[in-house]
Amino acid sequence: MKNSKKTNQDNSDGKQNDLEYNKSNAENEFLTTNQGVKINDNNNSLKSGERGPSLLEDFILREKITHFDHERIPERIVHARGSGAHGYFELYNSMEKYTKAGFLNDKSIKTPVFVRFSTVAGSRGSTDLARDVRGFAVKFYTQEGIFDLVGNNMPVFFIQDAMKFPDLIHAVKAEPHNEIPQAASAHDTFWDFISLMPESMHMIMWVMSDRAIPRSLRMMEGFGVHTFRFINDKNESHFVKFHWKPKLGTHGVAWDEAQKISGKNSDFHKLDLWEAIEAGNFPEWELGVQIIPESDEHKFDFDLLDPTKLVPEELVPVTIVGKMVLNKNPDNFFAETEQVAFHPGHIVPGIDFTNDPLLQGRLFSYTDTQLSRLGSPNFHEIPINRTIAPMHNNQRDGHMRQEIAKGKVSYHPNSLGGGCPFQAKMDQGGFVSFNERVDAHKVRERSKSFSDHFSQAALFYNSQTPIEQDHIASALSFELGKVETVSIRERMLGLLNHVDSNLAATVAKTLGIAVPKDIEKPINHGVGADDEGNQEPAKVKQNIGSSDALSMLKNPTISNTIATRQIAFLCADGVNADSIKVMKIALQNAGAKAVIIAPHLGTIVSAEGTEIAVEQTYKIAASVLFDGVFIPSGKGIADLSKIKEVKEFLNDAYHHCKFIAAEAEGVQILKNNSDIKAKDSGVLTSENSADKLLATSFIKALGRHRFWEREKTL
Ligand code: HDD
Predict the structure, then answer these.
(1) Are strands 228-231 and 351-352 parallel, antiparallel or unpaired?
(2) What is the rounded CA–CA span in Å between residue 6 and residue 489?
C-alpha cells in the first residue's frame, strides 16, 4: 500500500486532516450527487406534476435519503460516549535499556497521537458527568506501526477474567426491561452483581471516589491498567505499568455539582476539551512507567497479572519518560472520534503482553467489536486508523476496500512476485513474541494468588484524606440508597465491612440498616477451590498501609496552577470598572479566564461610565460551570441581591466548596445571603475596591481547587 507522507495523522506540527478527497476550489464547488453529477434543485423531489406523486426514477432523492437512512453505525457496546483530540508524544529520555520500541528510543521523533476519552456505561448521547470510570485511549502512530494504549483513568479494574466482562457490562448498563437508568450505576442490577463479586471491591473504592466525577478530561490521570512487558534489543523482558500524569493536576467536582452540570450542560467535558484546544491551551500529560525486572515477578504481596491490583508507587516509583500534548481538535467527529478503532493488541516491537486473563480476553474482543461496529475487516483503511508505517501484505478485498492492490500475486511464498513482500527478521524490525516458557495443564481456574480482594481496597481507602473518605461514604450511600432490594444492600455492607468497618457503619446508618453480623462469607464466584468452583477470599499481609499517590488531595503531582480555570464575575450596570480590571488582569496573568455575567447581554455601563462587554446572563450562567466566583465593587452591585439566579449561583458555589471573593458592595451581597458564612476562609473579602492583595490571595486559594473543609459546616 502506498503510504504518502501526507496523511491525516501527520499532525506532529498541529496541522493535519487535509484529506484531499475530490476537493474543489470554492468558486466551482457545486452541489453534486455522490457520483459527481451537478445538482440543479436540492429542494424539490421529482414529481408527476406539481401536486402529483413522486417518481421512482428520482435517483437524486433516492441517493440522498438512502445515505441518510444509513448514516448511523452501531455505537460502541461500552465507552459509547467519547471526545477525541489529535496531538503528539515526545520522549525525554531514551528507554532503550528496557525497550527497543523506536518511539521510546529516539528523542528526535515526535510521534503523532489521537486520544479518545470516554465514559463507559452510558450511550452516545448521555451526560459527561455520570459517576463512571473514564476511558483514556491513546493511539500512537509510530514509525513501526500503531501502538494503542487503551487505558482508563483508574489503575485497576472490576474483574479479573474477561469471562466476566459481558456480565459486568450487562449489570451496569440500563436495566433491560425498561432501559432505566441511563449512564448510572446506582441501580439494583449493578450492585447485585458487585455484591456477589468481591474481586470488584478495590475498583469500587475508586469509582466511589471523586476520580469518577472529574472536573475536566484534562485533569485526569491515565493508566494502562494491566502489566505489560518491555522488550529490549537483547530480547530481555521487564514488566511495565503505564501512567499518564496531567500537567493541570487531578481534580474532581462535588457529586451534587456533577448532577447539576448534567442538567445545565451535559457536554461539559466535551466542550471543555474542545474550547481549551481551540484557545491554544493544549492539555499535556507526562508518560510515566513503573519498571519491574522479570526476576521480581513474585516479590509482591499480590500477583502482577491480577488487574484488580496496582503496584504502589512507594514500592516501584514512576519514572517519567515523555510528554503528550493535545493540540488539535478533530475536523469531523464521526470520521475521527467515532470511527477510531482502538485495540490493546495493536503493539509494536519492544512492547508485549503478559498473561493477565483480562488482557488476554481483550485481545480477542476489540477486533471483533470493530467488525460489527465499523462493518468490515478493512477498518484499518479509514483515515484515522491508518498506520504511517509502510504497509504491505497479501490481505485482499472485503467490504469497502480502498486499496487497489496491483499485480496477480497475493500469496506467500511466491516466486511470481519476486518473493515480495518479505518476512522481516528480528533485526530488521520483525515482531517476535516474547519467548515466555509456558508449561501447564489446560484448566478453567483462577490462580490462588488472585484471591486477596480486600487488602488493596483497604489500602486505597486508608490512603485518602478524611474529606475523600467522606466522599466515598456519601457516594456509596447514594448508590446503595437507590438500590431497592434490601438483601443487595446487606450483602454490600458485608463486603464493605471487609474493607473498613467504619466505612460500612457510616453507610449502614444512612441506609437505616445494621451491618449484618451473620452475613455469609464473601464467595469468590468462579475462583476454583471447592467442587462448585468457589474459594474464600484470602487476606494477605501488606507491605505498606498507605500510599499518598492514591489520594487526589495528597497527590504530589497536583500542581497549584489555575491555568484555564473559569472564574465567574457577577456584574451589573454601575459596577466599578477598576475592580473588574484589577482582578481580571491578575487572573489572566495566572492563566485563568474571567467571564463577565450580568442581567442582560450586550454591554453594561460601569460606575466610571465605560462600557463593559457581557458574556453571559444570569439566565444562562450557573455556578456549577465555573471554578470560582468574584463579586466586584460598585453601587449598581447592590441590585444583585434582588436577582433570584444570583442567590442560587452563590448558594451553589458555596455548597460546592468553591472559593468566593468579593469587594466592598460585593461583600454586602454575601452578607445578605443567609447561607454564606463570611467567616469561612474560603470566602475572601475586602472592603477596598480594586484590591490587588485580594486578587493575590484569591489566586492562591483557587490553586487549591476547592475549600472542601467547608463541607463539615454545611
Ligand atoms: Fe474495553 C472499549 C478500556 C476491559 C471490550 N475499552 C474500550 C475503550 C477503552 C477501554 C478506553 C474505548 C476505546 C475507544 O475510545 O474507542 N477495557 C478498557 C480497560 C479494560 C477493559 C482499561 C480493563 C483493564 N474491554 C475490557 C474487556 C473487554 C473489553 C475485559 C472484553 C473482553 N472495550 C471492549 C470492547 C470495546 C471496548 C467491547 C467497545 C468499543 C471498542 O472496544 O472499540 O471491545
Answers:
(1) antiparallel
(2) 57
pTM across the whole model: 0.94
Query: Which three three-digit cell numbers place residue 282?
Result: 493544549
* Dist. CA 342 → ligand 1 center (Å): 8
CB-based pocket (< 6 A), ligand 1 = 76-79, 82, 116, 118, 135, 137, 150-152, 157, 162, 165, 225-226, 307, 340, 342, 358, 361-362, 365-366, 369
Does the annotation count 298 as an active-site position? no
Residue with the nearest Cα to atom 18 of ligand 1? 151
Residue 687: give the domain boundaries: 566-713
pLDDT digits (tens, 9 = 90+) for 338-362: 999 999 999 999 999 999 999 999 9
Per-residue pLDDT tens over the stretch 689-707? 999 999 999 999 999 999 9
- For residue 623, is it within any domain? yes
Q: What string of DSSP letters covers 422-436?
A: PPPPGGGT-------
Distance CA 575, CA 567 (A): 17
Q: How far is CA 206 from the centre of its chain?
A: 14
In angstroms, the first-to-last Cα distance of the chain is 64
Q: Does 152 participate in catalysis according to the annotation? A: yes
Cell numbers given for 465: 484524606
Domain contains 68? no
What domain count does the chain have?
Answer: 1
For residue 614, tell me if it sits in a domain: yes
Q: Which residue among 8, 11, 17, 79 is the active-site one?
A: 79
How far does the centroid of ligand 1 lie from the alpha carbon of residue 78, in Å?
Answer: 7
With respect to residue 673, please indicate whether it lies within any of the assigned structural domains: yes
Residue 642 belongs to domain with CATH number: 3.40.50.880
Residue 112 CA to ligand 1 center (angstroms) comes to 22
pLDDT in tens, 297-341: 999 999 999 999 999 999 999 999 999 999 999 999 999 999 999
Q: How many CB atoms lie within 10 A of CB 429?
A: 16
Distance from C-alpha of 436 to C-alpha of 439, rounded to nearest angstrom: 10
